[in-house]
């Protein structure tokens, strides 16, 4: 099949390009930045800023939309342009495709309370804690509105995606650990779902083979949850880091996050602060998703977990020059070093 993939120069998109190419599909990769030489070994590449119309005609059988503003810190206008209007452009462009797959996020669930095995039929909250969740929810509604124009439309909701090429979670944890300190909000026993990027690739392959019609939403995560304590301990050990762990009460952590954010705004830093209120909320409460629906409908049996995920991350980080090189600029590394294909 011919498959179009946006966000091919990003984390999830790069893995889908390699995964689906290895299965014999003809891949057309879209990205708004110049492609790495390695990408061109797996796909034809088209330069496309998804906030603008594209003039060429889409001839893909399957279209997977991964591009977007993937951060909880940023201006509403920037996120709206990429996550909402960019999705609208992708939906209009891919209208001739048989199946449209939208890579969403668990951030569309209610952010104000802990999530215990949240299901896909949960209602959208009236208000979101950040612009990322708000704009991704708007994009989901738009995808649903367009669903009558496609034979199949699927929304995938992963949570805390990790693996080789991760640009957010792992480098942030390692940056704190490099300084000899890790901060745990509360006692660190709260559980949360995580998603190995290989399990996303696996879920997409199941979708392509399935006979499902119409519009569907699936949570996609690893089979097992982790506590914050387990995540920090196992990741730091893999990189031979032994930071001192400080347990910080929720209110104190929230206040520290406000200081980090204020400093960032005063000095006009465009990068996400190392510590934000969203991080405090996310890592201080239970945040687990139910994957019973995808198991039932697609026979989803995730092959990857945190154990092999850590091993692969370590191998990949070593292949791009080591921990310090990774932490210094994680955004430019997804097509460098050892290229994992799940």
UniProtKB/TrEMBL annotation:
Signal peptide: none annotated. Residues 5-220 form the NAD-dependent epimerase/dehydratase domain. InterPro entries: Epimerase_deHydtase, NAD(P)-bd_dom_sf. It comes from the Bacteria. SUPFAM superfamilies: NAD(P)-binding Rossmann-fold domains (SSF51735). Belongs to the NAD(P)-dependent epimerase/dehydratase family. This is NAD-dependent epimerase/dehydratase domain-containing protein.
């Amino acid at each position: 099949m011919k498959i179009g993939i946006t966000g091919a120069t990003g984390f999830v998109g790069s893995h889908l390009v390699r995964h689906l190419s290895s299965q014999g599909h003809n891949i057309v990769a879209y990205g708004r930045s110049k492609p790495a030489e390695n990408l061109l070994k797996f796909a034809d590449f088209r330069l496309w800023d998804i906030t603008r119309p594209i003039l060429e005609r889409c001839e893909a059988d399957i279209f997977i939309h991964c591009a977007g503003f993937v951060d909880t810190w940023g201006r509403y206008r920037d996120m709206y342009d990429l996550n909402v209007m960019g999705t609208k452009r992708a939906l209009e462009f891919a209208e001739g495709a048989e199946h449209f797959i939208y890579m969403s996020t668990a951030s569309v669930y209610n952010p104000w309370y802990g999530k215990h095995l949240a299901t896909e039929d949960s209602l959208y909250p009236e208000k979101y804690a950040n612009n990322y969740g708000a704009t991704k929810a708007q994009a989901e509604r738009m995808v649903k509105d367009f669903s009558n124009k496609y034979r199949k439309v699927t929304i995938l909701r992963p949570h805390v995606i990790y693996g080789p090429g991760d640009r957010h979670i792992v480098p942030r944890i390692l940056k704190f650990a490099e300084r000899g300190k890790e901060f745990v909000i509360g006692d660190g026993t709260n559980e949360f779902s995580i998603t190995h990027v290989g399990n996303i690739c696996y879920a997409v392959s199941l979708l392509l083979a399935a006979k499902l019609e119409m519009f569907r939403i699936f949570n996609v995560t690893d089979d097992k949850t982790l506590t914050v304590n387990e995540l920090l301990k196992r990741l730091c050990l893999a990189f031979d880091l032994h930071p001192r762990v400080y347990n910080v009460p929720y209110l104190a952590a929230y206040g520290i996050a406000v200081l980090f954010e204020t400093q960032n705004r005063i000095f006009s830093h465009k990068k996400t602060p190392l510590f934000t209120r969203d991080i405090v909320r996310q890592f201080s409460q239970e945040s687990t998703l139910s994957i019973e629906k995808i198991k039932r409908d697609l026979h989803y049996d995730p092959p990857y977990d945190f154990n092999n995920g850590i091993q692969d991350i370590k191998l990949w980080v070593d292949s791009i020059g080591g921990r310090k090189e990774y932490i210094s600029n994680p955004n430019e590394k997804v097509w460098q070093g050892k290229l994992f294909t799940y």
